[in-house]
Each structure stands twice: as structure tokens, then as C-alpha cells.
Design a protein that fits this description.
327 residues, alpha+beta, Porin, 2 domains, 9-stranded antiparallel sheet, 5-stranded mixed sheet, 23% helix, disordered N terminus
Length: 327
């Protein structure tokens, strides 16, 4: 009796399978979409599902016209795999190119025409379009119709991520060196401008991606006829970039400006500074060409050993140089 029950069960299963396949073959595309969950196997996997009447990929690609059309579809990424899972219906695993290529519909029409020739121009010929195990569309005699067109792939943000690494925040350092011209201006006198070596150092922190608060120090020096003279400044400064992505910046400062030389002459007073520069390159280290100006607000008294010598003058300094900034 046991063998009888096993035989009955086997015959029932075979009968049910036959009914299912007969229904599936007779059903229109709209009905198949609700029951078909098949996708094409990876080409590296041996063999294909054994479905009566279906052909292998090698058999399909033996047709020259079909081969050319399918090669273009795969090359453009419109499809990444294909297979004939049932007669007269070619299933395509749709790729990103279906959403990004401007020739998607044209190339699918070529493929449909080539495939229809292989089905002896059956009116039931169809291209079944699938994406991530979901039915997304059909190509039939009526043309291309999408039920769920694949969305374009996310934009490549690799370059942006590289820029994000340079988002301005945290500690700020800037240093530079170049040439500087110093003028000493006074009433009823004329003093030639002197050109020497100048440099700057600025430290601070970003309060937002466009603004730095900190301090700046500058120096200028020149040796002439055995006498060395220096001009220096120490400022509280604000640096402002014109945008979060531009390297162009303006800097303004207020603080102290001083003068000294080897003849024990000194002078100092309140002053201000201004600077314009540009950060080149991306990353943490930037090359910065700059132009700057430092000046006392008013005349300052020249002194020797703390005593005034009767000479009042205004210091102004122009700076042109090349530096680096790190943030």
C-alpha cells in the first residue's frame, strides 16, 4: 500500500506541474508578470533552466543579426544578462544603462526585431525586462512599455568626497614670505621707500566654513650700510573667504605696528592691516599667493633708550609673497 500512495502522490505532482506550464504558456504578458519571478542565471553558472522549447544563449547568439543587436545592448549596459526562459519570450536583466543611455529604446527595438526573426515572427514574441528580480517592462509589437523604469544610478561622489575632506573647520595656520616695501612718511620731509624681505604668520580657528578668527604677525627687515632695520606688527585678524568652495579670501586686522634698528632707535603705535590671497590646491595644505598692507593709524614718535628724538612719522608697508595655509 505504501508504494501505491507514493505513486498517487507523484502522479498528482506531475499533473499539477503540467497544468501550471500550460497556463503560463497561454497567459498574456500582464498575467505572467504576476507569477514569474525568474531571472537569468549568471553566465558563469553551468547550464540553464530546462524549459521545453527554450533555447540556450549560445543557440540564440548563433544568429548574426541577433548577436550584433545583443552585443550593443550588453555593451551599453542596457542589459547585463539575457536568457530565453520560455519560448517566444526573451528575458533581460536590465542594467543601469537602461536609465542612462539615450539610445535605450532604439537598441531594444533592434534586439526585438532580431529576436522576432528567431521566433519565426510569432505575434507572441516579447522582450521581458527585469531589474533586481522585479518585472519592469516589456517590448512587444506595440513597442516599449515600462511598468517600473529603473532609476539612474547615484551620481559619482568620489570627487566631492575628496572636496569634503577639505571642508574648512578647526585649526587654521598660514605662513608666507616675500618682498616688502616700507615707507616712512612725515611732515615736511621726504624719505625714499625701502625694499626688503618680509614674512607673515597667522594662526586661528574657523568659526564657520568661510570665517577665521585669530592673530597675525608680520615682519620686515633690511640691511644697508651695516645698519639693520626691522618693521613688525601683531594683529588680531579676521579672514573671510568669499564662499565655502572658493580659495579667494580677504583679511583685516587691528593691532600694534613697530619699528627698530641697530642704532637703538624704536617706534611703535596702533595700526591696521589688510590682505588678499588665494588658496590653490585641495587637501590640507594649500599654496597661497598674497598681497598685503600694514600701516600705523597715525604718526608715531621715534625714540632712543625711551626718549623721544623729535621725529614723528607714519609707517606703511606693502607686502607681496607666497605662502602656505593648513587646515
Amino acid at each position: 500500500m505504501l508504494w501505491l500512495r507514493q505513486m498517487v502522490g507523484t502522479l498528482t505532482l506531475v499533473a499539477f506541474s503540467g497544468v501550471w506550464f500550460a497556463t503560463a504558456e497561454a497567459a498574456p504578458p500582464s498575467t505572467l508578470s504576476s507569477v514569474s519571478l525568474l531571472v537569468c542565471p549568471d553566465p558563469s553558472e553551468p547550464g540553464q533552466p530546462a524549459v521545453p522549447g527554450a533555447r540556450t544563449n549560445d543557440e540564440l547568439m548563433a544568429g548574426e543579426t541577433f548577436q550584433r543587436a545583443m552585443t550593443d545592448v550588453l555593451r551599453l549596459g542596457i542589459a547585463v544578462r539575457f536568457c530565453e526562459l520560455r519560448p517566444d519570450t526573451l528575458t533581460l536583466d536590465v542594467g543601469d544603462g537602461a536609465a542612462t543611455s539615450a539610445s535605450t529604446e532604439y537598441n531594444l527595438s533592434r534586439l526585438y526585431g532580431a529576436y522576432r526573426a528567431l521566433t519565426e515572427y510569432s505575434p507572441e514574441t516579447a522582450l521581458e525586462l527585469r531589474h533586481q528580480d522585479r518585472l519592469t517592462g516589456w517590448y512587444t509589437l506595440s513597442g516599449l512599455s515600462w511598468t517600473e523604469r529603473p532609476a539612474p544610478p547615484p551620481a559619482d561622489t568620489t570627487g566631492q568626497e575628496g572636496r569634503d575632506e577639505t571642508v574648512r573647520s578647526g585649526f587654521y595656520f598660514n605662513a608666507g614670505a616675500g618682498a616688502g616695501a616700507v615707507d616712512q612718511q612725515c611732515r615736511d620731509c621726504e624719505i625714499d621707500s625701502e625694499t626688503g624681505f618680509s614674512g607673515l604668520v597667522a594662526l586661528g580657528g574657523f568659526v564657520d566654513p568661510k570665517t577665521v578668527l585669530g592673530i597675525e604677525g608680520t615682519g620686515w627687515t633690511k640691511d644697508e650700510s651695516g645698519v639693520s632695520a626691522q618693521v613688525y606688527s601683531a594683529m588680531g585678524q579676521v579672514t573671510r573667504y568669499i564662499s565655502e568652495t572658493s580659495g579667494l579670501f580677504l583679511r583685516a586686522g587691528v593691532g600694534w605696528v613697530g619699528y627698530r634698528d641697530d642704532a637703538d632707535l624704536t617706534a611703535s603705535g596702533l595700526g591696521f592691516s589688510g590682505r588678499i590671497g588665494y588658496d590653490f590646491l585641495r587637501g590640507k595644505v594649500h599654496i597661497v599667493p598674497y598681497f598685503g598692507y600694514v600701516r600705523t593709524f597715525d604718526g608715531i614718535e621715534l625714540k632712543r633708550d625711551g626718549d623721544e628724538v623729535g621725529f614723528n612719522f607714519v609707517i606703511s608697508q606693502f607686502q607681496l609673497g607666497l605662502g602656505v595655509s593648513i587646515y
